[in-house]
From TrEMBL:
It comes from the Eukaryota. Pathway: tRNA modification; wybutosine-tRNA(Phe) biosynthesis. Interacts with RNF144B/IBRDC2. This is tRNA wybutosine-synthesizing protein 4. It catalyses: 7-[(3S)-3-amino-3-carboxypropyl]wyosine(37) in tRNA(Phe) + S-adenosyl-L-methionine = 7-[(3S)-(3-amino-3-methoxycarbonyl)propyl]wyosine(37) in tRNA(Phe) + S-adenosyl-L-homocysteine; 7-[(3S)-(3-amino-3-methoxycarbonyl)propyl]wyosine(37) in tRNA(Phe) + S-adenosyl-L-methionine + CO2 = wybutosine(37) in tRNA(Phe) + S-adenosyl-L-homocysteine + 2 H(+). The keyword S-adenosyl-L-methionine applies. Its EC number is 2.1.1.290, 2.3.1.231.
């Protein structure tokens, strides 16, 4: 548990060094240096921002009181006191910090040995006495085990904590490491013993969905299990907990809500532009698995930092579920690890033959960008997997992610865009050529030739997380290339028509209301046009709109497809059209109470039905984002390939096997 505190201090330090948080004191308190990933920086940024937002609101609301105090539980190597002191916010406030005795002793020694810190706190030079390892005029550092409530109470009394003045308790990922009976007792003690009290809690939730299972496993492996999750799995349970323990006001929100509602737009944009970033799914999943809670009692006026000067969107109720679909691991004849990947693309190149290319995944036990192409062939009810031989691998494949592959004939497919790193330019186009005739029963017989292209359409292709859809205009085939993002533009809203044979960009007029820019949306061919659904918009907010690009005599027209109930905004899903119905598969949304399963939209009536995916037959968490899916219309079978990602600092999860869903029930029952 103490190790988690040290590790989070290193992460905060790294975030401060990159400009996410403004904190010049962290580097003085944290001796270990390690550069963390942009995803981790964002995660620690939102945590620091939530705590600061609430602490400063407490100091503002209580500034008319002659004396106030802050008690930081499990403070670790946090710099809160020094930042507040430096900003001149502690004129009539004393800060008490409590942590394990050895942590408190280390911190006291650091403060004494660092001029800048000891000058700020006004070090009296006195040795610590008993559990009080450091004592300044407005700062007391105590070494006590929080789970020993009797000892904690005695130590705080000795240090001068006053139960009659406004007091803010801070517990930032601390209580969850204690047994529930002990953390509950602490929450109740704070409500009962202090006449004017506020409590700020930041920790994890939603243990049972795929991301939550990976998160729990990570903390268990560190030998620091998260105890509160089973009893208090969500915001509502935590809120009830505080009311039951004697608090009279309590508000709570997950970190997606906090970032959207409590962070000014220009600050959101500042943070989004700090580093090249392309892990939106994991960022939003991390935020939906952490919450900030504020509770108070006896405060006049009442303390509600999560409600003041902003509107919290009405928390959506549970998703209305029309039914569930059972997932089963594919019946395979050969084991193959090469399909453990994300950000790849799978396409049906012939009936019952699926080609998977690119992405990031696992090869020979190593995580890397994937070079190999893989093929799945269905034969006599079983899938056989194999590696595809590449005739000339140096022809510019570049191990790409987030590209598209469009089959133009039995022997020809076009690869468009994709990226290597999010800071480098998008990649161009490639032909994939297959032999005209080959035995479809043996996957290892297939060879692919790569032909790199430098056509006029190149600028159109330098993007990723876009879509490429076959449309028909005046009897001719075109590829409709839409949206995505590039190294320069975090979101694109433009489009191109590529003539399927010559690959030249053709000007075709398009009328109607232009959809807002998006990436990570879905696109399907339908009635000669294209159906675009969802995606991530300009402010990194999921979109719930569906558009149909419809063929007219002289060009195309954008038409909004109205859905009812309205489609829940999502992105990073896949989609298929069958018999007048649009199927949306998986993805990421901000409804933290559940994960997206399969949504069926009737394109005639607009009726929108959500189905959950029943995963009881899978022995591992099924993460349905950055996956690919292929629909086999004759069997009404949906094949899910790959998916997953870097789960914040909890490790990488890759779905180990392809999964099959039978959709015959939901596609015939309408």
């Amino acid at each position: 548990v103490q190790g988690t505190g040290g590790s989070s201090a290193v992460s905060k330090c790294s975030a401060a060094a990159r400009g996410y948080i403004h904190d010049r004191f962290l580097r003085l308190l944290v001796r270990r240096r390690r550069r963390r990933a942009p995803l981790v920086h964002r995660g620690y940024y939102i945590r620091a921002r939530a705590v600061d937002h609430c602490v400063q609101d407490f100091l503002l609301k209580t500034q008319s009181h002659p004396r106030t105090q802050i008690l930081s539980l499990g403070a670790g190597f946090d710099s809160l006191y020094f930042r507040l002191k430096d900003m001149g916010l502690l004129d009539h406030t004393v800060v008490y910090e409590v942590d394990f005795p050895n942590v408190a002793c280390q911190k006291a020694a650091l403060i004494k040995g660092t001029k800048e810190l000891s000058a700020l706190v006004g070090d009296t030079g006195e040795e610590g006495v008993g559990v009080i390892t450091f004592s300044g005029e407005d700062y007391k550092l105590l070494g006590v085990d929080l789970s020993e409530l009797f000892e904690l109470e005695r130590a705080l009394e000795e240090a001068g904590l006053d139960s009659e003045i406004p007091t803010l308790f801070i517990a930032e990922v601390v209580l969850t490491y204690m047994e529930n009976c002990r953390s509950d007792a602490l929450i109740q003690w704070a409500a009962e013993h202090f006449s004017q009290a506020c409590f700020l809690l930041y920790e994890q939730m939603h243990p049972e969905d795929p991301f939550g299972r990976v998160m729990q496993q990570h903390f268990s492996q560190l030998n620091s299990a998260l105890h509160s999750l089973a009893q208090y799995p969500d915001c509502e349970a935590q809120q009830r907990r505080f009311f039951e323990k004697g608090w009279t006001e309590c508000s709570v929100m997950d970190m997606n809500e906090f970032f959207t509602c409590c962070t000014p737009e220009e600050e959101q944009q500042r943070v989004q532009a700090l580093e090249p970033f392309d892990e939106y799914e994991e960022w939003h999943l991390k935020c939906s698995h952490y919450f900030v809670l504020t509770a108070s009692k006896g405060m006049e006026p009442s303390w509600t930092p999560l409600l003041s000067n902003m509107t919290v969107p009405h928390r959506d109720g549970p998703v209305r579920v029309a039914g569930s679909i059972t997932a089963a691991v594919c019946a395979m004849h050969s084991e193959i690890s090469g399909l453990r990947r994300y950000g790849h693309h799978s396409v049906l190149i012939k009936p019952n033959v699926i080609l998977t290319t690119g992405g990031f995944g696992e090869e020979n036990g190593q995580h890397c960008r994937m070079r190999d192409f893989h093929v799945l062939i269905k034969h006599a009810g079983y899938w056989k997997a194999g590696c595809v031989k590449m005739e000339n691998p140096d022809k510019g494949w570049d191990e790409r992610l987030y590209h598209t592959v469009s089959c133009l004939s039995n022997s020809l497919a076009l690869v468009v865009g994709g990226r290597t790193s999010p800071s480098s330019a998008g990649l161009g186009m490639l032909w994939l050529k297959f032999p005209e005739s080959w035995s479809a029963s043996d996957p290892d017989d297939i060879a692919v030739e790569l032909v790199s292209l430098q056509p006029a359409a190149e600028p159109a292709a330098l993007r990723w997380r876009h879509s490429t859809t076959e449309v028909i205009f005046k009897g001719k085939k075109y590829l409709f290339l839409y949206g995505g993002r590039s190294a320069m533009e975090p979101v694109l809203g433009d489009w191109y028509f590529l003539h399927a044979q010559e690959l030249s960009c053709t000007m075709i007029p398009v009328e109607g209301p232009v959809p807002e820019s998006r990436h990570s949306h879905s696109a399907c061919s339908w009635k000669g046009g294209a159906l675009i659904a969802g995606g991530l918009g300009a402010a990194e907010q999921p979109l719930g709109s569906v558009f149909f690009l419809r063929e007219l005599e002289h060009g195309f027209q954008w038409q909004a497809v109205e859905t009812h109930p309205p489609l829940i905004p999502r992105y990073s899903h896949t989609a298929h059209v069958h018999d007048g119905k649009l199927l949306l598969v998986g993805g990421v949304w901000f409804r933290s109470s559940s994960v997206p399963g399969i949504t069926v939209i009737d394109l005639m009536t607009g009726l929108c039905l959500d189905y959950t995916i029943n995963v009881e037959h899978l022995e591992w968490p099924l993460m349905l984002h950055n996956h690919s899916s292929v629909f086999l219309p004759n069997e009404k079978e949906l094949l899910l390939i790959g998916g997953g990602g870097n789960c914040f600092s909890f490790g990488t999860h890759l779905n180990p096997d392809p999964v099959s869903l039978s959709l015959s029930n939901i596609l015939t029952s309408h």
